[in-house]
Amino acid sequence: MASPVLLASRHAFGVSCGSENSRMNFGIKFRLVLLGSALVLVGALLVMITVVSQRHAGELRARLGQIDSESFGIADRFKDTLREVNDEMFHYGTFHDPAAWDEFLKRSHELDVWIDEQKPRLNTQREKDILQQIDAAYDNYLSVARNLHAQMQSAGQSSATLAEFIPLRSQSQHLFDLGQLLAKAHYESRNNLLSHAKGSLSQLRLSILVLLGLLFIFGGALAFGVYRHLIAPLRVKLGESQALAERHEKLASLGMLAAGVAHEIRNPLTAVKAALFIQQKKFQPTSPEYADVKLVEREILRLERIVNDFLQFARPSEPDLATVPADLLLLEMQQFLGPQLAKTNIQLALETSAPRWVRVDAAQMKQVLINLVQNAADSIGTGGKITLRTRHDRRRLGSGETDVVILEVADTGKGIPSEIEKRLFDPFFTTKENGIGLGLSIAARIVENHGGALQYQTQLNRGTTFGIILPEARA
After folding, report:
1. Could you tell me which residues come within 8 angstroms of residue 201 by beta carbon, excluding any fewer than 6 positions away?
2. In contact, 152 and 211? CB cutoff 8 Å
3. Domain covering 320-473 in this structure, CATH number
4. pLDDT cut 90: percent of the chain above it
5. Which of the residue ranges 213-222, 235-244, 332-341 has the most confident prediction, judged by mean pLDDT?
6. E strand or H helix that includes residue 347
7. pTM for the structure as a whole
8. Which CATH number fits domain 25-218: 3.30.70.260, 1.10.3860.10, 1.20.1440.210, 3.40.50.300?
9. pLDDT given at position 16
């Protein structure tokens, strides 16, 4: 069962306090969810960029391998094929062999087809220009070869002279040089591709570093938010709960000891009171001795009241429950205390409402209401208003939410300062000159034994409202 001290801290009074806490909790959850979503998004982007970079790296390796093979293939294939064409032409020019001429035509045609096939494979303008020069130079080479063939045919020569081979060799060397330039240009395009790839990889690396930084920042912010809004409050509450538990254990031990002492004090007080009653008969009502006896009697009665209150707090009696109208309890309070409060110009008003029923010990609940009304009157002093009312609500009591009836005592007094609020339900804490500090503690204990809760709402210089929350009963 919760202690009276916890009742004030656990229950925020009224709809405004509950909605404010709900908005605050929603704001905290929204910020944490937002940070978590940002963290997940950054992580997803990091994974996506990593996958994309790996795919680009694979494509780059494949492309570079293709360019390397094409660069060396162009040079080797062009030189080998051109050499075969030259060999066939020189063989024909040396031996005037018609088969060699036919083979020259075949090889030259293959080389011409190969040159045409390279055109769509080239990417840079420099490569295309060089290939255009090769195509033109090869046409010149074939033209020189055909002229040599026609000259040998018309002259009936069995072989060509060295001087006649010079133009053919010059064109052949020019083609070899252009083939080397084409291979070099193709390799330069590889370097350009590699440079572009390096730039892209640098950007990807920078993006990954930025995302890692954001991941670290959002992760740190999320961890800080969880610690600040969830873990830190739990640690504070745990510390407070441990301190409160230790305090309650000490109070329980002290209460058991004090209850025994109070019980032992009550018996001598009874004897003293009886002896005093006998002695006061010996004095005249107008004598000083009679006045002293009356003073002693009042103090004995005060001691008896303190002892009885303390025993009731230490060992409260079980309530004798009965189903009664809630308004009836407040009506009896108005009739019982209204005339007395009117002497200090305090109005005790009762607001009517729909009939509600509660299952209570009427005598104990009246004791609670009397204590709350007297506290309200003490807060007002003179000239004010105390309002009694009931209202229906749904609250969490015990293990679940249920329909409740709230008996409210609202005053227009000075309110409760914050330094007093912290100890409001502490036993033996009081701000009254002749008080003993058990009224609210006893009231809270009685309400607890009825399965309810005692809570309050206060504003300085505007008043305080105490509410007795009880489970609603059927009529």
Report:
1. 53, 56, 57
2. no
3. 3.30.565.10
4. 17
5. 332-341
6. strand 346-350
7. 0.46
8. 1.20.1440.210
9. 42
